[in-house]
């Protein structure tokens, strides 16, 4: 086991990934005469970045290449590959971006704009995840102001994390943290370095047999919520990437919960129980909480998931054995619609977004998995059969190139399915492991997916070793962790 971890640490320290999207027109706009940080500001604005997203883009460009359009890097890239140009677009993970485009300042900026989904998703850039861009923010603001381009614009979208009996999210320094709910309370482990090896498990106490949800405050501190039939508690990081508070009461018991971030950074928590769905929200970013309020109905004792529409409005999906309903914010950071029928009942669900921002919902039931997706920000497709394991627990995450991958586990099997291309249809289900009780997928700081699966034998994980290759299932460290029945 220790030799395996040493080999893994060596691999992880070498892996550098950058996200991808669609094909690009090479050299459509000649590179401006500006140089350095002013060049990043100019081509970033021309690509479509606005407001704070433009400032972030400039800062990331400085962290990646010092805003040198001819910059390249081949060190520590596995498989051997080259990071190219202003935003260091990798030629292995994103072969659709030619060298001619990557080394053209404007074409590189256009690629970065598409890869980052218009400045709403900088997670594919390790310099952003690790905070290396932060020291350039003041200079980036000055460059945007100097060129007259610090115009108002949308803040980056913050997508909700998964919820379930095991959850994982990245701390502000890029390290994954994972929580698992066993019969005697919640256990916790964390990466000792970003994309690296794992600590031993520690017991935190808290509600036994709980459903968990985790989200990030606007300042980067993680907050974790745990609910069972009689208790709802939460704990939170005292500082970004820092120590955690003790458990605090957050409400009474219920069935399931989910947390998401409003466009203005305020967290919002939804919980289901025997009389429907309730919610509670921060009154200001990084601040205190409202009282619990009825969400206007919703299915009783439902499984809940949150997503965020392309325009920044949160959307809530709630499913029980008989009913599937949906409500959404009527305006960004605003009030909520009434509940509408979204389908019939089922077992579990996961919500994710395509690279172009459109939401996609997967739901499992007695005959397998079905999915439904936005055809524009306010309309949806019909339900389509996707195959897959019956009555399975579901989770989803993005590959480094932006394709959605869906993972399913039940008492007989674990399987996964993925898009054939960015924003594209899905292929066939492939075996991903044996039976289990819960599954959650998350992304490492370098962009690779990491999946946690649970059973009565404990918590195991499996991670991408390349673009389409995976490790075996393994313990996080020296023990299997808590049993999750």
From TrEMBL:
<protein>
    <recommendedName>
        <fullName>Transglycosylase SLT domain-containing protein</fullName>
    </recommendedName>
</protein>
<keyword id="KW-0732">Signal</keyword>
<dbReference type="InterPro" id="IPR006311">
    <property type="entry name" value="TAT_signal"/>
</dbReference>
<feature type="domain" description="Transglycosylase SLT">
    <location>
        <begin position="42"/>
        <end position="127"/>
    </location>
</feature>
<dbReference type="Pfam" id="PF18896">
    <property type="entry name" value="SLT_3"/>
</dbReference>
<dbReference type="InterPro" id="IPR023346">
    <property type="entry name" value="Lysozyme-like_dom_sf"/>
</dbReference>
<feature type="signal peptide">
    <location>
        <begin position="1"/>
        <end position="28"/>
    </location>
</feature>
<dbReference type="InterPro" id="IPR058502">
    <property type="entry name" value="PLL-like_beta-prop"/>
</dbReference>
<dbReference type="Pfam" id="PF26607">
    <property type="entry name" value="DUF8189"/>
</dbReference>
<dbReference type="InterPro" id="IPR043992">
    <property type="entry name" value="SLT_3"/>
</dbReference>
<feature type="domain" description="PLL-like beta propeller">
    <location>
        <begin position="161"/>
        <end position="479"/>
    </location>
</feature>
């Amino acid at each position: 086991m220790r030799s395996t971890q040493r080999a893994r640490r060596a691999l992880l320290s070498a892996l550098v990934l950058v996200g991808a999207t669609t094909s690009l027109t090479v050299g459509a706009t000649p590179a401006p005469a500006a140089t350095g940080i002013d060049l990043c500001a100019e081509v970033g604005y021309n690509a479509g970045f606005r407001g704070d997203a433009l400032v972030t883009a400039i800062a990331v460009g400085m962290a990646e290449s010092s805003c040198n359009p001819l910059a390249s890097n081949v060190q520590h890239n596995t498989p051997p590959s080259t990071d190219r140009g202003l935003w260091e677009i990798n030629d292995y993970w994103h072969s659709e971006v030619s060298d001619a485009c990557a080394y053209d300042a404007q074409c590189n900026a256009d690629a970065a704009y598409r890869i980052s989904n218009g400045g709403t998703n900088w997670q594919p850039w390790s310099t952003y995840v690790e905070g290396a861009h932060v020291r350039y923010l003041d200079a980036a603001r000055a460059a945007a102001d100097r060129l007259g381009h610090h115009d108002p614009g949308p803040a980056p979208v913050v997508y909700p994390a998964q919820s379930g009996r095991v959850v994982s999210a990245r701390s502000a320094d890029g390290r994954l943290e994972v929580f698992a709910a066993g019969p005697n309370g919640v256990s916790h482990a964390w990466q000792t370095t970003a994309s690296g090896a794992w600590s031993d498990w520690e017991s935190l106490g808290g509600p036994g047999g709980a459903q968990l949800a985790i989200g990030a405050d606007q300042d980067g501190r993680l907050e974790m919520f745990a609910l069972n039939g009689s208790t709802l508690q939460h704990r939170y990081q005292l500082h970004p990437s820092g120590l955690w508070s003790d458990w605090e009461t957050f409400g009474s018991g219920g069935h399931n919960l989910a947390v998401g971030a409003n466009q203005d950074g305020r967290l919002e928590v939804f919980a289901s129980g025997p009389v429907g769905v309730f919610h509670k929200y921060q009154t200001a970013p990084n601040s205190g909480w409202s009282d619990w309020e009825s969400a206007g109905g919703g299915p009783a004792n439902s499984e809940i998931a949150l997503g965020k529409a392309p325009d920044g409005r949160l959307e809530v999906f709630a499913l029980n054995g008989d009913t599937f309903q949906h409500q959404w914010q009527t305006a960004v950071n605003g009030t909520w619609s009434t509940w509408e029928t979204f389908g019939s009942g089922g077992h579990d669900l996961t919500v994710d977004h395509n690279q172009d921002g459109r939401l996609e919902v997967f739901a499992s039931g007695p005959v397998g998995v079905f999915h439904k997706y936005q055809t524009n920000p306010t309309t949806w497709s019909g339900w389509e059969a996707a195959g897959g394991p019956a009555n399975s627990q579901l989770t989803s995450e993005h590959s480094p190139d932006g394709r959605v991958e869906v993972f399913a586990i039940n008492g007989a099997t674990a399987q996964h399915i993925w898009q054939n291309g960015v924003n594209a249809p899905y292929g066939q289900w492939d075996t991903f492991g044996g039976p289990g009780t819960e599954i959650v997928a998350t992304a490492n700081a370098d962009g690779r997916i990491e999946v946690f699966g649970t059973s009565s034998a404990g918590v195991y994980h499996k991670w991408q070793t390349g673009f389409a290759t995976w490790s075996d299932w393994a313990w996080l460290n020296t023990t299997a962790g808590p049993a999750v029945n």
